[in-house]
Structure formats: structure tokens, C-alpha cells
């Protein structure tokens, strides 16, 4: 069984890298929307800001400053620069557990964001700046998959990434289709798909039928799209099932929780979800993701020492 501090660091590297990529993408979509109608721009800004924090009126009214803060503000807890700094610090603590390729890629993107010229680069070309960050994070994930041994450490990394992704997409869907949310127009729904990297996969599945119900169904229940919540929960359950084999006789709570959530999404019916209210279903999914996170900590990080000592 891997050391608890090592498992913890790898788990949080996965979470922080996924969060940084998501926030960078939402910031980019928010800026792109300003080229469209003012009503759409305000709605997209409200969605993007609400999905990662608070959509204060002054932030919605100034999307460029809001996007820059989400990218570069070190005092913003969910900003890209903060998330990557935390990911890099965790990687530094377990440098012997990751490959040179993954460390170099993470270090390079961190230096790009935290360097003295980052603010100027953002001001000179915000969209290109954010695209480069997202591309670098894709390269990090590719390097991790291609060069790390697919053992415990790799599984903790991916467990963190998929759990974070499930919660981020869940929160986005809750903001868009939750309780008391106004109906979104076509350009805003298209922006929501772009926020989830889902536009082309969605169009292949539903052609040009861009409506709220099929978008919710696709991002919630599609078994093949890697950013749907169902796909993420399948991966979470698979990784926890493998990791639990190393826990010997210890009862691993998160595996049971992940299996229950996987089954819930696998057998979910959109008719029932709509009848009960999509907000009820989404709130339940997010609550169960939180339980899985706490279960991971109880089982692999904060467990009592006597549970791992031989009798």
C-alpha cells in the first residue's frame, strides 16, 4: 500500500490540474461570448462565474477583468494560477513518484502563469493565452498517461481528476438547469457545450438539435463521452475497485459509495429526472461525490495507524 502522503499528493495533483483546465476554458468561453449579443454575453458570464464561485453583478458586467482574475489572481482560491501552484507543490513533494516528462510539463505551465510577463501576455491576447494553458494541461495529462506506470500512483492521479471533473460538470449543470433557472437561448446553450468540451460530440449524437433537455441528458448520462458525469463515475468506481485491492482487510467505504453512484447513473431515466426535478438529481449526485471524497480520505489518507499495522 502506498504511503498516505504520497496518495494524497497524487490525488490532489489530479484534482488541481483538472480544476485549472476547467476554469481556463470557462474564462475563454466567457470572453468569446462578449463578441456576441450583450444579453448572451451577460448570461454566459453569469453561468461561468457561478459555476466556479460567485457571480456578483460587477463581475458579470466586466467579463474581461473577471476572466483575468480567474486566470491570474493568486488571491482567488479557484484561479488557474492558484490551482497550478498547488498542483506543482504537490508534485514537488512526490517528485520520485512521477516521471520527468510530467514534472517538466507541469513546471513549464506553472512558470508561464506565474512569470512576470503573464499579465502582459494575457492583455495582449487573452484567448491565445488561455488556449495555450489548456493545451499545456492536455500535454501534461498525455505525458502522465504515456510515461507513468499504471499502478497505484497513476490511479490516485486519475481518481482525483475524474472526481473533480464530475463535481465541476455537476456544478455547471446545476447552474444551467437547476432550481429556478431561466430558460437559456441557443447561443448560451452552445456556450455551455463549449464549456464542457462537448459541442462536436453532442452534435454527432443529436445533430443540430441544441436544446436544454438533450444537453442535460448528454452531459449527465452519456456512457461514452469522457466529460459526462456517468463516464466520470464509471472511472471513479473502476480506479477505487483496483485501489481497494491494496487495502487488504480494511473495509473501503469509497468503493461502495462509487458503485452506488455508478449504478444510479447507469439506470437513471430522463423522464424520472424531469418529473422529480433535475435540481434534485444533480444535488444528490454532487452530495454523493462529496461523500466519495471523504471516503477516499478515510480509507487512504487519514486512516488510524493501527488499521495498517500487522496484528
Structural summary, described in words:
The two termini are 16 Å apart. The mean pLDDT is 91. The protein contains 16 helices and no strands. α1 packs parallel to α9 (152-177) and α9 packs antiparallel against α16. Helices cover 75% and strands 0% of the residues. It is mostly helical. The protein has helices spanning 4-33, 38-52, 57-61, 63-72, 80-93, 100-114, 118-124, 126-147, 152-177, 186-195, 199-206, 212-221, 229-244, 253-266, 270-276, 278-301.
- What is the oligomeric state here? single chain
Strand-residue proportion = under 5%
Rg measurement, Å: 20 Å
Count helical runs: 16
Backbone structural class: mainly alpha
SSE sequence, one letter per element: HHHHHHHHHHHHHHHH
* Overall pLDDT level: 91
- Span between N and C termini? 16 Å
Largest sheet: none
**Poorly predicted ranges:** none
Helix content bin = over 70%
Task: Tell me how many strands there are.
Answer: 0
Envelope shape: globular
What secondary-structure arrangement, pairings included, does this model have?
Elements: H1 4-33, H2 38-52, H3 57-61, H4 63-72, H5 80-93, H6 100-114, H7 118-124, H8 126-147, H9 152-177, H10 186-195, H11 199-206, H12 212-221, H13 229-244, H14 253-266, H15 270-276, H16 278-301
Amino acid at each position: 500500500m502506498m504511503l498516505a502522503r504520497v496518495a494524497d499528493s497524487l490525488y490532489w495533483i489530479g484534482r488541481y490540474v483538472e480544476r485549472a483546465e476547467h476554469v481556463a476554458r470557462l474564462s475563454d468561453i466567457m470572453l468569446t461570448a462578449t463578441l456576441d449579443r450583450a444579453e448572451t454575453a451577460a448570461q454566459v458570464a453569469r453561468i461561468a462565474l457561478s459555476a466556479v464561485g460567485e457571480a456578483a453583478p460587477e463581475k458579470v458586467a466586466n467579463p474581461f477583468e473577471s476572466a483575468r482574475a480567474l486566470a491570474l489572481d493568486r488571491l482567488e482560491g479557484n484561479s488557474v494560477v492558484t490551482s497550478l501552484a498547488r498542483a506543482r507543490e504537490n508534485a514537488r513533494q512526490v517528485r520520485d513518484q512521477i516521471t520527468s516528462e510530467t514534472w517538466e510539463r507541469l513546471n513549464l505551465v506553472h512558470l508561464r502563469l506565474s512569470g512576470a510577463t503573464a499579465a502582459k501576455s494575457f492583455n495582449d491576447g487573452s484567448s491565445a493565452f488561455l488556449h495555450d494553458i489548456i493545451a499545456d494541461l492536455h500535454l501534461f495529462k498525455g505525458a502522465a498517461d504515456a510515461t507513468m506506470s499504471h499502478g497505484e500512483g497513476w490511479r490516485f492521479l486519475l481518481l482525483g481528476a475524474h472526481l473533480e471533473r464530475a463535481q465541476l460538470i455537476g456544478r455547471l449543470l446545476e447552474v444551467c438547469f437547476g432550481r429556478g433557472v431561466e430558460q437559456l437561448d441557443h447561443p448560451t446553450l452552445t456556450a455551455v457545450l463549449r464549456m464542457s468540451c462537448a459541442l462536436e460530440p453532442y452534435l454527432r449524437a443529436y445533430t443540430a438539435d441544441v436544446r436544454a433537455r438533450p444537453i442535460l441528458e448528454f452531459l449527465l448520462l452519456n456512457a461514452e463521452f469522457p466529460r459526462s458525469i456517468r463516464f466520470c463515475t464509471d472511472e471513479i468506481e473502476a480506479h477505487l475497485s483496483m485501489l481497494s485491492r491494496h487495502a487488504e482487510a480494511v473495509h473501503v467505504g469509497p468503493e461502495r459509495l462509487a458503485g452506488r453512484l455508478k449504478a444510479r447513473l447507469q439506470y437513471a431515466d430522463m423522464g424520472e429526472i424531469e418529473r422529480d426535478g433535475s435540481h434534485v438529481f444533480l444535488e444528490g449526485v454532487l452530495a454523493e461525490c462529496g461523500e466519495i471524497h471523504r471516503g477516499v480520505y478515510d480509507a487512504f489518507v487519514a486512516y488510524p495507524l493501527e488499521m495498517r499495522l500487522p496484528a
